[in-house]
Amino acid sequence: MVRLHVPAALSALLLGVMLSGYAGPLPAATHAVQQAASPAGHPDIFRFKIGKLDAVALKDGDIDAANDGKTFGVGQPNGAVSALLAAAGQPTDVLHLSIQPLLVRSGKRVLLFDTGAADASFARAGRLPVSMREAGVAPAQVTDIFISHRHQDHTGGLLTRGGALAFPNAVIHISAPEWEALKKDGGNAALVAAITPKVETFEPGATILPGVVNAVDVRGHTPGHSAYEITSGNERLLYIGDVVHHYVVSVQRPEWTVEYDEDAPAAQSTRRAELKRMAENNERVYAVHFPFPGLGHVTKQGDSFVWVPEGP
Ligand SMILES: [Zn+2]
Known about the structure:
- By secondary structure, the chain is an alpha+beta fold.
- The chain has helices spanning 5-20, 31-37, 80-87, 128-134, 152-155, 176-184, 189-195, 249-252, 264-280, and strands spanning 45-50, 53-58, 61-66, 72-74, 94-99, 102-106, 109-113, 144-146, 171-175, 199-202, 207-209, 213-217, 226-232, 235-239, 257-258, 285-286, 295-301, 304-309.
- It folds into 2 domains: 1-40; 44-309, Metallo-beta-lactamase, Chain A (4-Layer Sandwich), CATH 3.60.15.
- The protein is 25% helix and 28% strand.
- The chain binds zinc ion.
- The site of zinc ion has 5 residues, from helix 5.
């Protein structure tokens, strides 16, 4: 039903155009129609609206996790993960994760949610700077960065290859427990030193930009893992960070152990609770690791859930 929205709007518009005999360029009736009418944009960017806010998904890269029982479905019987993947029409040898930070314009502020993996060894990534340029945004224009958690596929883009701040004018918002965890991690001294003057911590679940961005406490994956609720008028979008990683396995089997979760039992109960909340409230969701652009809804299916992507 979500998929039908854009074509239905487009055909209504085309019908109106035909009936009125209008022969010029298509009027910009709605943003959704504009997207449908010009699908040939850069493949690494996807523009959409959150109420009155302009948003754009920015592809950074990909992660491939071997389906060897060590990452997803840890401890499950042989073939259980493969059966789910096959039923979804996916290859069964590898679990594919996309990486797409989210950019939102709110008045004069330019908000960036996570920063991609840069040259992390476990990813094929680092396209964020190019994607951002294609979207017409310069790094110096970013005013606020919201970090979901300290893993490298979310913080990798904070610094340039030379170790300078990649977004020199941006405040870096990170939850207080996650910042403490980042400072304790080995090997992060250069990152911590570089970003410390820009970091503003918040308590889990805090309001960060009133009326625009609230943090959502989703601890478990990491000690201070945070999702973000982005609002404009009556519309909102939930940026879910790594509550769920894979659009089939994580959504359909939230209790299965994922190697990436630092506190697996806490992450599993958070995952089920958040999926339930998303489905019951029909939340519009932005999933940083789902197939690009990662925009859609979660619906209930029996005792479990399924992902319903949104887009043309
Ligand atoms: Zn991640």
